[in-house]
Amino acid sequence: MFNFVDIGRQILNKMSKIIYTITDEAPALATYSFLPIVEAFTKPAGVEIETRDISLSGRILANFSEFLTDEQKVSDDLAYLGKLAVEPEANIIKLPNISASIPQLVAAIKELQAKGYAVPDYPEEPKTGEETFIKAKYDKIKGSAVNPVLREGNSDRRAPKAVKEYARKHPHSMGAWSADSKSHVSSMTEGDFYGSEKSVVVPKATKYKITFVGADGSTKVLKEGASLQEGETVDSAVMSYSKLNDFYAKEIEDAKAKDVLFSVHLKATMMKVSDPILFGGAVYQYFKEVYDKYATLFDELNINPNNGLGDLEKKIASLPEDQKAAIEADIKAVYEKNPALAMVNSDKGITNLHVPSDVIIDASMPAAIRTSGQMWGPDGKQKDTKFVIPDRCYSGVYQTVIDFCKNNGALDPVTMGSVSNVGLMAQAAEEYGSHDKTFQLAGAGTVQVTDEDGNVLMEQAVEAGDIFRMCQTKDAPVQDWVKLAVNRARATNTPAIFWLDKNRAHDANLIQKVEKYLKDHDTTGLDIQIMSPAEATQYSLERIVKGLDTISVTGNVLRDYNTDLFPILEVGTSAKMLSIVPLMNGGGLFETGAGGSAPKHVQQFVEEGYLRWDSLGEFLALAVSLEHFAQVNNNPKAQVLADTLDEATGKFLENDKSPARKVGQIDNRGSHFYLALYWAQALAAQDKDAELKAIFAPIAEELTAKEAAINEELLGAQGKPQDIGGYYKPEFAKASAAMRPSTTFNSILAKL
Ligand SMILES: NC(=O)C1=CN([C@@H]2O[C@H](COP(=O)(O)OP(=O)(O)OC[C@H]3O[C@@H](n4cnc5c(N)ncnc54)[C@H](OP(=O)(O)O)[C@@H]3O)[C@@H](O)[C@H]2O)C=CC1
Ligand SMILES: O=C(O)CCC(=O)C(=O)O
Ligand SMILES: [Mg+2]
């Protein structure tokens, strides 16, 4: 249990600090190498760097202290940062963390238990009160549990000029598009969230209640006592489970008929309540014969299609050989009958239906669009694909890009313009804040949302199995978002398009607010328009091919989608994005890139000692964080650090020192060395701060002189398996040794 008084005191003590977050997978590995550089370089300027652990394993340990020995207990760093994010002092560098699906959560628990932490198992089917309590705690850790807590501001994501120039000079590969590509997006035509959305703007502050009223007259309160602010927009929508299943069945047949891969694209991590169910529906429909035939057995084994085929495979592994073989033969028969599935790893037989968190729409759709609109089939070959995105709210964006590429060919990174994003995100806005208001209903009836006076705000009819979802969007974030959009349009003299669909109830309410709040600003000479997502996509693409830039001003989901889609097409990866969250209370949250934790990269590092994680996002975030620190604390030395870091990053890009992809070439560690070299050189060359100049001149000299020796040590460490002492909770000494193999470099840093 954390104590708010304590946390308050800690915040006062931490006023002039930069918080660097410890997360998971590839960014966490990179941190073992990069953080010592950051600490060494910032110390002479009086900038204190503090780390806070928000990794999946750290969050599990923090929440289950009662199961741990005193030595094993850790502080609840996420709770601490959540409090800090609403304080003006906040200066947080946030690296990507795992948003865990149940299979990942279970794996992390197993690893911790094996390391001697007596944390409880995840009770998939809780039977006692205690198990229900434990499950509820784990469910808070699961999915996207970190970002919504820290994101107390809206989002400003863009490719800095130097990054765009780098991509123009060193264009990444883009698969060619053919006009007769059979790839397409399939969405439901009715019964989805889009078709059922209702929205109201609350006239005065109130408390709301969500109640299920059964067809038999019974009632069940699903949630109550939660607040709504004056002017808050609330929406409700329903996904029909039976229509979803009919849709999947039809699309499976259609993929077979069209001879394309079947691939489902959802966000089971961020949308942790609804999307695993949507994913499970696809798994069930595809493997229907198997799940139906073995229904009783699977029930006993707690096999749930929502956890993917991987869960089934794991749980049948301990069955008697003949029983297991029979199930496997039935699975094989399904593969033969049904269309080929898009694969996550065709060598290992891992399909897109194995793990709910393997295919995440924001990254998976752009990656396919970059690859000629194709995915990989079971034979390891690329093939045209049916991209199944059940809900219509945002699927039109991808169909528009696909149509555009079919008509115009692949986009060209050398000449294309840019689409940046201003995203409405603060205070758990919209769908991404809906987890605690999303329910799968057990029976038919209606779900009512009422205010504290008993007035019905919204009502939705449901059948058994349907998913009801309610979203909230507070008014202050909307005002801040409009302001940010106008500021970005003004600062860059670029058209800003609000991606809002007047045919959606929620968007229609937002359009009214946007029109109202735009009047609070001087917009003379600015090009600000409102278009539906599909129209806005088309408009932006028509500009992009002419080399023109456009700002996309979007809600929370499109913020997420667009900030992978356009960066991946423009600069090859969203890791190179500048991602700033100006916190509404004056602090700064600096996210590193817009991409995730790249699990594939860890696998490669462990197998062959090569880490291809690109830390450019960390470099960019650190520079803006230092700049913010300099301004808030009136510390000119920190400003010198920020300016010289920017210069170093520019040179780093110019000299092409980003990690490559294969053993024998520069990797993440080598890229950190070059950043340190250029940063030291820039500090030694500047004349704004004589003290820093004097400190860094000998460091720069020594790093320059020993470049060859350091490279030899870094390259020499590649090409062999690495032991980092764990996946979810690596051992510090082992991971640090693996990530810092150059004694020459380490000893120079130690002089600072
Ligand atoms: N802010 C956050 O905390 C975020 C967290 N996540 C979480 O990360 C996990 C993995 O998500 P997933 O959707 O697979 O997305 P990832 O972004 O982790 O991976 C997709 C691909 O993006 C590329 N990539 C991403 N970052 C880098 C980088 N710094 N350097 C080089 N390449 C990079 C790689 O592509 P390629 O192989 O083509 O080079 C990678 O294989 C999930 O748990 C997810 O929830 C996801 C997004 C944001
Ligand atoms: O929080 C998450 O699960 C992912 C966040 C994400 O993809 C993003 O912010 O772009
Ligand atoms: Mg994203």
TrEMBL record:
UniProt entry tagged with the keyword Ribonucleoprotein: no
GO MF annotation: an example: metal ion binding
Gene3D superfamilies given in the database record: Isopropylmalate Dehydrogenase
Needed co-factor(s): Mg(2+); Mn(2+)
Signal sequence bounds: none
EC number(s) per entry: 1.1.1.42
Note on cofactor: Binds 1 Mg(2+) or Mn(2+) ion per subunit.
SUPFAM superfamilies per UniProt: Isocitrate/Isopropylmalate dehydrogenase-like (SSF53659)
GO process terms (BP): glyoxylate cycle; tricarboxylic acid cycle
Source organism superkingdom: Bacteria
Binding site for D-threo-isocitrate: R157, R559
Presence of keyword Translocase: no
Binding residue positions for substrate: S144, A145, V146, N147, P148, V149, L150, R151
Keywords: Glyoxylate bypass, Magnesium, Metal-binding, NADP, Oxidoreductase, Tricarboxylic acid cycle
Site (Critical for catalysis): K267, Y432
Binding positions (NADP(+)): K94, L95, P96, N97, I98, S99, N147, G596, S597, H601, R612, W613, D614, R661
Annotated residues for binding of Mg(2+): D362, D560, D564
Reactions catalysed: D-threo-isocitrate + NADP(+) = 2-oxoglutarate + CO2 + NADPH
Family to which this protein belongs: Belongs to the monomeric-type IDH family.
Protein name: Isocitrate dehydrogenase [NADP]
Biological source species: Leadbetterella byssophila (strain DSM 17132 / JCM 16389 / KACC 11308 / NBRC 106382 / 4M15)
